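[job 4471] stage=fold_predict status=RUNNING
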Amino acid sequence: MEMIKNIAVLYGGSSSERQISLQSGKGVHAAIKELGYESNLIDFNNITNLNELKIYDFVFIALHGFEGEGGKLQKSLDDLNILYSGSKAKACRDTWNKKLTKEILEKNNITTPIWLEAEFNKELVENGLQAALYDRFKPYEYLFLKPEEDGSSVDIFKISDNKSLKDAYQKCINPNRNFLFEEYIEGRELTVTIINKECYPPIEIITTNEFYDYDAKYISNETLHIEAQLNASELDKIKSISLDAFVALGCNGWARVDLLQDKEKNFYVIEINTVPGMTSHSNVPKSGSLVGLTYNQVVQKIIDASL
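[job 4471] inference complete, writing structure tokens
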């Protein structure tokens, strides 16, 4: 194992997830200092050349959004022989892009909701939901519409009819990109933290919102994150499918796998996050706490798992 003394915590950036990244970075930086390392907190917006990071033994990436999860940063750090937390470039690229994630999951026989790639343009909206391309979802009450690349539930909509499709187009922050339509599965929303290929206790997310949107994630005080009550068989199954997804996507170090469980107890992988939130209320430290780990110990395990 590499001797690590001086750690840069990379956070901030310019994505839609900047504010959450600022919280994650501050929490990780405080933990690293308390663990006895030397550390600097660096806003990605203030970096002009990644060579500046060569003075550190290790970079902890707490940078959410494309800048931290899209793979370009990881490729550049590898080219500079700089050690960093989490997955390599290809895994980051493949998990950041929901279409690539879906294709890899399906290739590895890992269950994921039925989906369809589409350009979210005026023609799509005008044609409505009666077009033949939606036949794969029938019969359906709702569909989810989500960007092929983005995080924090930005521009995700629940679509039930042509009117809601038009409303989504009007409300969409950035419609000029590829989107996925995804099968709506009624059931429980769950997430599994993986560190060093070990699954931590699943968390169930319960929201009073229509679905787990940006408001439910970051604004509402009514969203609950609790230990998922699963029987032994379900627990084995959710850990197995989560770890299979982690391996299939080539993840390293740590990640968080988001899933749904339907009424028949089947699990579906929705997505994999290679740089999960690390605020004091985030699911990764919460899951660690369920096995007696402090926030600082979770951070140390992530560092160790990444080397």
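[job 4471] summary: The domain at 95-111+186-306 is CATH 3.30.470.20 (D-amino Acid Aminotransferase; Chain A, domain 1).
[job 4471] exit 0
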